[in-house]
Design goal:
alpha/beta; binds ligand LLP; 21 strands; about 425 residues; about 30% helix
């Protein structure tokens, strides 16, 4: 089964991480064992300095492209307000995310509303709130939006999301651009639907959008999707409609293990190659790439099991309800010891599991870790995206705390959930 690089290599490959003899493993300069002691475990920790650094890297790699951060990756107000402050826009997929993005300080004009099943209420909310762009995904949605916009006398700015039938080569559950996936308008019916939109009152057809999937590690699928869209821009223009913008979606992969990432510069190269000569405004919607490596989940060993096991097993106090990716997608996330002594101790293959009563509640098999005793603190890496945001209260487990590290200080940004509140909204009839 999988093993993992040694602690020093993991630190070297993670900009947010470092270590020193006093604090052990640190995130943006603050000791993770200390954070565990101060705030308890399990706790999601995210580094604001790392987030700013990644945002700056992305900004520099993609000049002339508007960046709409995909809120779903990590929707905490503190994260959103940092990105809004840096001039990013937001990509939202529900009325809740729209309201959250506004609450965090995004200008409504910089918010793009995507999603295959927006309700009438959500469309009304977006229009009333001045949403900058609604990415329409079907003929029926276009007609409903037109009716709602006309009734509100507010013009909806629309991009048509295209399903280009391109396989992004990613995990089946996060692939969105193949013909059989539920997203977007089929490429072949797009031009006619676009023309229909252009003829509707209170609809302003602004352009096209595409998002072929998440966790993509090759520039080829991006290029093929963008080339198809560029062809469509020409077709639609030739038919007499105006196309002002192309929204190129998200999907840049993050190396959780030994994958080779597509550099944002390479993705920008594909965008330029396809759309450079078309005179369109360009936008992207990255989520994972911005936040994943900025976060870790710290947890404490609650049980060690050495008896009759193929290898030692540690049970930690974080579980699949706190961080779902390993259980849901079989995703690999490196796991590290955090104390100064544990970081240099001899290692052995160790299974790391959560306490939930499901065999999928496993964070890693045969991970190279030192002998960790009960009470030791571990860090699961790269949990900043699709981490806390995908939590649940399964097994009546309260939400983990969330902590932001900024300027060398750790601050609580979301209090640990309280068990007694878990049933507060439940009603026992009679
Ligand atoms: N735009 C749209 C329309 C999307 O559906 C998504 C992600 C993004 C942008 C951002 O994609 P990113 O840059 O983060 O790859 N929970 C899964 C990922 C689901 C992604 C869904 N859509 C995971 O943990 O891997």
């Amino acid at each position: 089964m999988s093993t993992q690089p040694c602690a020093l290599d993991l630190i070297a490959s993670h900009q947010a991480l470092s270590r020193n003899v006093l604090d052990g493993l640190t995130l943006d300069g603050v000791g993770l064992a200390q954070i565990a002691a101060q705030f308890g475990t399990p706790t999601h920790v995210i580094g604001a300095d790392s987030l700013r650094a990644r945002a700056a890297t992305l900004r520099a790699a993609m000049p002339y492209v508007a960046i709409h951060y995909a809120v779903k990756a990590n929707d905490h107000l503190a994260i959103l307000s940092i990105l809004a402050g840096l001039g990013f826009g937001a990509d939202v997929v529900s009325g809740g995310e729209f309201s959250r993005a506004i609450a965090a300080g995004f200008a409504p004009a910089k918010i793009v509303f995507s999603g295959v099943g927006k309700t009438g209420d959500e469309l009304r909310l977006a229009l009333a709130g001045g949403c900058g762009q609604i990415n329409v995904e079907s003929a029926e949605e276009l007609e409903e939006l037109a009716l709602i916009a006309a009734s509100m006398k507010i013009t909806a700015r629309v991009a048509l999301r295209i399903n280009p039938d391109i396989d992004a080569g990613t995990h089946d559950k996060i692939s969105t651009g193949r013909a059989g996936d539920k997203f977007g308008v089929p490429h072949d019916s797009a031009a006619a639907l676009y023309a229909r939109g252009a003829a509707l009152p209170f609809i302003e057809m602004r352009g096209l959008a595409v998002h072929i999937g998440s966790q993509i590690f090759s520039v080829g699928p991006f290029q093929r999707a963008y080339d198809r869209l560029a062809g469509l821009v020409r077709t639609i223009r030739a038919a007499g409609s105006q196309v002002d913008l192309v929204d190129c979606g998200g999907g840049l992969g993050v190396a959780y293990h030994n994958e080779t990432e597509v550099l944002p510069e390479a993705c920008y190269g594909a965008i330029k190659a396809a759309f450079g000569g078309l005179g369109v405004e360009l936008a992207v919607e990255p989520g994972r790439w911005c936040v994943a490596p900025c976060g870790v989940l710290v947890a404490r060993v609650i049980r060690t099991r050495l008896e009759a096991m193929e290898q030692p097993m540690i049970v930690i106090d974080a579980a699949m309800n706190d961080f779902m990716r390993p259980a849901m997608y079989g995703s690999y996330h490196a796991i590290m010891a955090t104390s100064p002594a544990d970081l240099v101790a001899p290692v052995m293959p160790t299974d790391v599991v959560g306490p939930i009563c499901e065999s999928s509640d496993v964070f890693g098999r045969a991970r190279t870790l030192p002998a960790l005793g009960t009470g030791a603190v571990v860090a699961i890496l790269d949990t900043g995206a699709y981490g806390a945001v995908m939590r649940s209260n399964y097994n009546s487990r309260a939400d983990a705390a969330q902590v932001l590290v900024e300027n060398g200080q750790a601050k609580l940004i979301r209090a640990r959930g309280e068990v007694s509140k878990l049933w507060a909204r439940e009603i026992v009839p009679g």
